[in-house]
Write a structure and sequence with these properties.
Jelly Rolls; 5-stranded antiparallel β-sheet; 1 helix; globular; signal
Length: 197
């Protein structure tokens, strides 16, 4: 069984709430990886980056695992809809009507390894009530999936889970995001635990 240890805030991301009007409850994470009927022995190692903010690239329709969500026309130019900031990989939905990004994993994921990710957004606004959809996948394994009502408060999602699957280095990580209105989302980090030599 995949083990989760969700937390709402972290010291690194506390400023996100401080700059926004307040943070709400992140709720429980959705399924991360494939379900397992057996127990997974957690490894004891060091957390390292699974991805780098500057390595994200846009996904074409054919490679998009969530292509059913894509609008007929995608408008998400670099520098307007998405960019790299000091705080991480940022998507501005005012300039990006649909975000689908990928990069290869820098490290392998082994069963029992902790995976930690940090995603946050500022207050979500739109002219009409809507729903935002954010998904982070490693290979075919969903690490995080959220549907968030708009309008909504600023939120930090700090999710920790223990992998019950294996994934080789170089396999794709996907960050999917779409919502209505002009909203800013930042994927601060995704890390994985590797065994110490």
């Amino acid at each position: 069984m995949t083990t989760y240890r969700p937390r709402v805030t972290s010291r690194r991301l506390f400023f996100a709430c401080a700059l926004a009007s307040g943070c709400g409850d992140a709720g429980s994470p959705s399924s991360g990886g494939t379900d397992s009927t057996g127990s997974v022995v957690e490894i004891d190692g060091t957390m390292v980056d699974l991805v780098k903010p500057q390595l994200w690239v846009q996904l074409g329709e054919d490679a998009d695992p969530l292509r059913d969500h894509r609008p007929a026309s995608v408008n998400c130019p670099l520098g307007v809809g998405w960019l790299v900031e000091v705080t991480g990989f940022e998507v501005n939905t005012g300039g990006c009507n649909y975000g689908a990004f990928t990069q290869p994993t820098l490290r392998e994921i082994v069963p029992g390894a902790q995976i930690s990710l940090n995603l946050y957004h500022f207050d979500l606004v739109a002219a009409e009530p809507a729903t935002a959809h954010a998904v982070i996948m490693a290979g075919d394994h969903v690490l995080l999936e959220r549907e968030v009502d708009i309008p909504g408060k600023a939120m930090v999602y700090e999710v920790e889970l223990v992998a019950d699957f294996a994934l080789a280095a170089g396999e794709p990580v996907v960050f999917h995001l779409h919502n209505h209105g002009q909203n800013t989302w930042t994927l601060a980090s995704i890390q994985v635990e590797v065994e110490d030599p």
